[in-house]
Write a structure and sequence with these properties.
Blueprint lengths: L1 H17 L13 E3 L8 E3 L1 H9 L3 H11 L6 E7 L3 E6 L1 H14 L13 E6 L10 H19 L3 E8 L4 H14 L17 H11 L3 E3 L4 E3 L7 H22 L6 E4 H6 L2 H11 L3 E4 L2 E4 L10 E4 L8 H13 L4 E7 L3 H13 L10 E5 L2 E5 L2 E2 L12 H8 L1 H8 L8 E4 H5 L6 H21 L19 H11 L1 H10 L4 H20 L7 H25 L8
Parallel strand pairs: 5-6, 5-13, 6-9, 13-14, 15-17
Antiparallel strand pairs: 1-2, 2-4, 3-4, 7-8, 10-11, 11-12, 15-16
Length: about 550
Amino acid sequence: MKDTVIQLLEAAIAALQADGVLPSDQTFTPNVDNTRDKAHGDFATNIALATAKVAGKPPRQLAETIIDKLPKNESVAKVEIAGPGFINFFMSDASSFDIVRTIIEAGETFGRNDSGKDESVQIEFVSANPTGPLHVGHGRGAAIGDCLARLLEANGYRVTREFYYNDAGAQIDNLALSVQARTKGMTPEDAGWPKDGYRGDYITDVAKAYLAKETVSADDREVTAKGDADDLDAIKAFAVAYLRREQDLDLKAFGVEFDVYFLESSLYNDGKVAEAVEKLSENGYTYEKDDALWLRTTEFGDDKDRVMRKSDGGYTYFLPDVAYHLDKWQRGFTTVINEQGADHHSTVTRVRAGLQALSAGIPEGWPDYVLHQMVLVTRSGVEVKLSKRAGSYVTLRDLIDEVGRDATRFFLAARRVDSQLTFDIDLARSQSNENPVYYVQYAHARISSMLRKLDGLGVKVETKRFAHKLDGLELEEERDLANRLAQYPELIASAAVQREPHHLTHYLRDLAGQFHTYYNAHKVLVDEPELRDARVALCLAVKQVLVNGLDLIGVSAPEEM
């Protein structure tokens, strides 16, 4: 319906340009929004306010002229001027319920579009160090990143999901030392335990598997343990593979899969870090100070220059990040989105500065970042801080085991990424209207139950047969429900552009709420066939949008609950 209003306004503007009321050498794009108060119609535009100055007319007078030039269309019941010059459109009942037919006929493709034109987009998310189980912060990143990938695919983009493994550096060394200490019978309470060692029970599991000479298969490698407690390199290789496998299993249990796993160590092994240093030096953006190599990031908006190579010869974290993102650019990804925790905020400016200093043709402000805030897990109103398996944090697996995959994914994607999220285990486990994922899934299950009853009455449920059975729809609640359904395609487009998947969870909750209210107030399977079929058609449309929306979050749509 919104597209119809836009097209009518564009025709009116073209007519005004032909009449000389508006200049013909300018482009005017009408902005059309859904109204908040249905007393003001279904849609409103400020086009008269936006173009009044260039037209040399008062906004209300120009609004009258625009309305006079609107082509006749049976979808529009009435057009009014409001306030200083807003134009409000009241759509006809027939046009409101056309969306029901559209949804039923489109099925699982409803809401999808090809605006991305098959453009290649890479999303890097999770990217956890292989030093322990995935924590709830990684889980939030997985939920947001995967949902964003699905949204972009729904908008016609070709998405590559990538996981960057920090499999080099001090943290990996500490992992190896921790496992080695366990293989020699030490515990974290012993005086000789590594100073920065890992203390969770999973370290014991790795050590036992290593001593048992087990073989583990990660995404790109298979490692057989030597069982030698003195061979630190062998312990390191086995421990990394073991924990990478564990993280893979956690992510698969969460319904998240990746197309590419990229190893930090490959940047060193393939000489990409050294090449980046050489290029930065050639471009004149490096200097020596205090036996360290610095990058002049201040020339690209940073608050101070940054050390690239420390005095001991080791590289700081941001340099391999620069080399890694250069590799992304060289692989042809003109759009790259990094979904990371808010603790990465300080690296954004540094990485972008380093990429600009490479003079590789990379645009300013590349790549995009989506940074999520921390997750607070509570039970009975009290924060849950520890996991026996991890030793110091709540793991993603803990949540999946407690409340299931669906609730975990929905809850972790349900808030703005830049706001802290409280994960209430009791709420996520509850079967109540207060639990948003239960509330949405129950709407789908309720419609499925109604369709089984219809089948039991001897009415064949051939979905598309109902697409043209809309004449009985006339209630205000039915119209409002249809209007909510009509908002879905625009929401899918805007959520992807804005990189804000939480809008989808809010929409589904609102849609489910409207449906429950309608279903509780009005019987669907009435005796009169025409009215029954019309209401069934509306319910089928709601069911389809629930299925489509839940799929974009990676959440199931159960037939029974």
